[in-house]
Amino acid sequence: MVDCTRRTLVGAGLALAATLSVPARADGWPAGADGPDLRLVDPELRETARAVWTAQRADPPMSRSALPGQRAQVMKYLTPPLADIPYVERRIPGVMGQPAVTIFVINTDPAKRRPAILHTHGGGFVTGKAILSVRSLQELCRDLDCCAITVDYRLAPDTTYAGSIEDNYAVLKWLHANSRELGVDRARIAVMGESAGGGHAALLAQTAHIRGEVPLAFQCLTYPMVDDRTVVRSVPAQIGNFAWTREQNRFGWTCFLGQAPGTLRVPRRAVPARALDLSGLPPAFIGVGALDLFVEEDISYAQRLLQVGVPTELIVAPGAFHGFDVMVPKAAISRRFAAARVAALRRAFDQ
Q1: Which candidate in 228, 292, 298, 325 is catalytic?
Q2: What predicted TM-score, i.e. pTM, was given to this entire model?
Q3: Is 292 a known active-site residue?
Q4: Would 11 be classed as within a structural domain?
Q5: Domain that holds residue 187
Q6: pLDDT tens-digit profile of 71-123?
């Protein structure tokens, strides 16, 4: 839910936290409050963790009826794009029988042949907008001397996985076909995403491998949402308490799949972790916080990639919850996490 629902929670949580006047316990919680043990959270992240948890208790549960308002709400957290890194909004054709797709194309130069990132935004599969990622992608393009495209894929439950997978794949094919116009080196295309966007990026890497039309150099997955079966598994009490909870996870997967998650009836092509064979996929970076609801599924996915010979770097940030790096970007652990991700992309593009 990076760049969208999480930001809504943070904004509300910080506002609520500022009004708290009751004394705090030694572990950082207000006296008399029930909640997760903040001593497990990195010290620089504790204030935000408390604010997010407080906001989650105040907000109504995610539901289909509430989605229009939640989708509109996230636009309040749009960061203005940079003036010195060019970007343009475009509409490109969808695959046969599918609607056109809106994309934002960032930092292109037809006179060069540079790496490219195809980015899919977060939002629990049900909310989020590509424009919210433009600023951060501009900064990344400047750091890596590359270009990027971020996709406004169709959201669930308006469409299921079958629609959004094809939206993202249509953009990948368009990027590959128009590489000369965009100044892209076809041999250095990476997919990238955070949270649900990380799940989309993993699905796109699998789809591209199966169809064999567009080679990928790398997949950069930040706390990716890759396994619907987490909704039915027992998880340790310390994980999944901040920013993306088990209840929200169930709602997101139910909308995305169009059916109950965690059952034997779920199609394998809809869930990255359900794929039987991960061999042949591009090298990967997977980063996740130790308190993130997705930590176990992400570790498992990384292990499976390694077992079939896919070069994979796994970063587990201790004391970190879902979306910590965006919520508290100046924290030391966030800076180390971001630096590791950029370094992984740089190594992939330099090869």
Answers
A1: 292
A2: 0.90
A3: yes
A4: no
A5: 71-350
A6: 988 888 889 999 999 999 999 999 888 999 999 999 999 999 999 999 999 99
